[in-house]
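re the bet — no i am not wrong, look at it urself. input seq straight from the record:
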Amino acid sequence: DYSSMNANELSSLAMKAMLAGNMDEYHRLNAALKLKQTSDHLKPKAPTPEQPSGARAGASAGGAGQRVEVIEEVDSAGRMRTMVSSVAQSSALAKGKKRLTHEEGKSYYADDAVSLEQLLRREKVEGVQDYDANYAGYIVRKGKRFKELHEDEDESYALGRYESREKVADPRKKAHKERQRLVRDKQRLQKKSADCSFCMESDKFAGRLDCLISQSFKVYLCFQSFSQASFDPHLFIAPIPHVGSVTNLDEDVYDELRNYQKCLVRYFDARNQAPIFIETVRFFVSPEKAMMGGGPHTIVEVVAVPADRLQEAKTYFSKAFGESGSEWSQNKKIVPTSGKTGVRGRIPKNFPYVHVDFSLTEGLGHVIEDTEEFPRNFARDVLLGMLEMTSMDKPFVDKKSFYAAVKAFKEGFQPFDWTAALK
């Protein structure tokens, strides 16, 4: 009976069933989890006094059966909402009030009584305003009515031009807009997760379940889909969290990804083959959008080549990276990588790049400078050229042979699967 369990308990049991290979039980638990989450969302919840206004339901929690949007305690910049609200204070005079001047003893700002310690704390939490952007926005809003200060005029009388418009908003209107924005962010996150075919919570991931080889707590190993497979085998390793690159992974997620790479090296070594791990990161989104599930979901593709051709593959990629991009590149065209850190130790975060690791012996990285012109399947095409194949050559004639290959790989990989210890 699953009705007495909460969502966390159901999720934990579903994970155990998946790791044990009991897919029937996994699907039953998953269905019960979705039903539980839906019923929880439909229950009206009255906000408690301990909850900050930003963490309460964005919609009215009134009538029974009315949908309630539950807002996370962390905002889109990764900050605790309670911490942000504790330092929030309007530093400019509210609209509708007479604007005070220095001649009357006060400036435009209403934070004269705030201590330096409080200002420093506020700056650490809220960050520093982009005053140039604020001033540009002021000019755009004024349009033809904008008047530039005369050289003899004191800029201290026009500091409001550099202040964020949010600072002068009415507190009640500002709180209402903030609640609406939180609800939109929550809905956008749910939509992004639903649209990503690599996110396991997405409905689109259902098509990959038959290709799933193994799953740990934060990473999974999967066969490429029938339409995307260019080699036999053609796999990928993906983090379960929606992250845009290996360089941005948390340490524990990266450790699990490395464990899968080590297992694949042993598996292919027993078959006189060597795996090549390929990651292509063509662009990034802002940290705020990434927190909301925006941007691509990174994967590390896995392609096996004969062990005696591994050195040849290094030569091909070294030549391809050297010829890629402009002659006047600002970055080194070839970035050698090695050791446990791999690309994380050589290419900074939020840089677009291609990284190719040759059976965990050494790797080559390449910083992408022109993300618009750089081919999406650059690394795949290099390997196809080395193996004297084209993108039109398909490794499987039909889906029957494809799923037979998936089943054979899954059975052969089980003795090398590190997650067996978790069971």
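see?? The longest strand covers residues 273-281. told u. also The first helix runs from residue 7 to 19. so pay up
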